[in-house]
Amino acid sequence: MSFPSARTLAGLVVAGIAAPAAVGLVAQPASAASVGTWDKVAQCESTNDWSINTGNGYYGGLQFSSSTWAEFGGRQYAPQANQATKAQQIAIAEKVLATQGPGAWPSCGKLAGLQRGGPAPEAPAAPAKGTGTSTADKNTETPAAPKRAQGANSYTVVSGDTLGTIGSELGVSWQSLYSENRSVIGSNPDMILPGQRLAYGSGSGGSSDSGGSTPAAPKSSSPSGSSKSSDSSDSSESSGKRSSSSAKGVLPVSGGSISARYHQAGGWAAGYHTGIDFAVSTGTPVRAAAAGTVVSSGWQGAYGNAVVIKHDDGRYTLSAHLSSATASEGERVSAGEQIGRSGNTGNSTGPHLHFEVRSSNSYGADVNPVTWLNGLGVSL
Fold it and tell me: What crossing angle do the helices spanning 35-46 and 163-170 adopt, rounded to 10°?
């Protein structure tokens, strides 16, 4: 369920900060975070989609609220952050960081190691009056050369790296990196070690300088880590969002990116997000993630139209904010069978599917949906 998030605290606390007399007087900090660190923040906040707008009230790669974007001078570049270039978004982020510190991105800032200090990225010039920033301008920026590349097709892992941030820096998907380097990384794509040398774009595996033994090859071809490609044009087959031939379950929806993760801190009633949000357009088919029996279907207050299924393993799933619930109470459904269509009903800030897994059919009994799906042979 997508209540307004606190992941960009700037939007919530800026009213308590003395604002500059004019936007033009907001000083660019003398030293700030590196572009690589901002890439890591964006990877966590938006899977490095600098033009993202899921309808949740936060925009762009670093998820600015409209008020924060305006307060720190972003409108000199574009009306909303998602309409500005990556460089322009970083320029405004530097101002937020200088004023509010890393806590403006409470979860992702910490994960990315965001802090004051370090070389300041070069601030872009404001666009000439009467000109705008087109989508083509944002999407055709030349990626920066990787800082730790070893030759044309090799990259050495350093502390704090993930496959997602490395892929963003190299201009390749994390799935491609994982596929080429399984013999180095092993079965868990989240477990990469400093010193490992990863190949990319060469079709060959990498090597390890970490001093340890090479991890065992993965048991399946589908990674189960949290790294995700930011290329929304990938199909569910090519993006790692597929189940193996022995899988007992399926993803509840196809073609969407994750806009809110399980236990993400924010302004939800529980103090954290109790499920996973998939950003999909209204009307997208929603499926039963596993076989089970429908225990309720229809309006459920803040969840809007929702379907609850009791599965054969005793777990319950809640699919919420539907535009329509097509399953019937008492109906037996199989994995992959359509139970409704996604929407924006109830307490929702934009079209998406809220998918929740519970140990019992009650609020507060939530369990990690990623772990549950992984147990069914389904990867995110």
Answer: 120
Q: Tell me the C-alpha distance between 277 and 254, whole Å.
A: 12
Task: Quote the pLDDT of residue 309.
Answer: 96
Q: What is the pLDDT of residue 160?
A: 66
CA 211 to chain centre: 32
What tokens appear for 96 in the block?
A: 């937020």
Q: How far apart are CA 107 and CA 202, in angstroms?
A: 35
**Is 171 within 8 Å of 227 (Cβ atoms)?**
no
Task: Give the pTM.
Answer: 0.39
* Residue 291 to residue 161: CA distance in whole angstroms: 38
306: tokens are 């929702």
- What whole-number distance in Å separates Cα of residue 366 and Cα of residue 362? 8
**Upper half-sphere CA count for residue 189 (Cβ side, 13 Å):** 29
Strands (E), 19-137: 58-59, 64-65
Tokens of residue 307, six digits: 């379907």
- Phi (first) and psi of residue 163, to 5 degrees: -60, -35
Residue 306 has pLDDT above 60, yes or no: yes
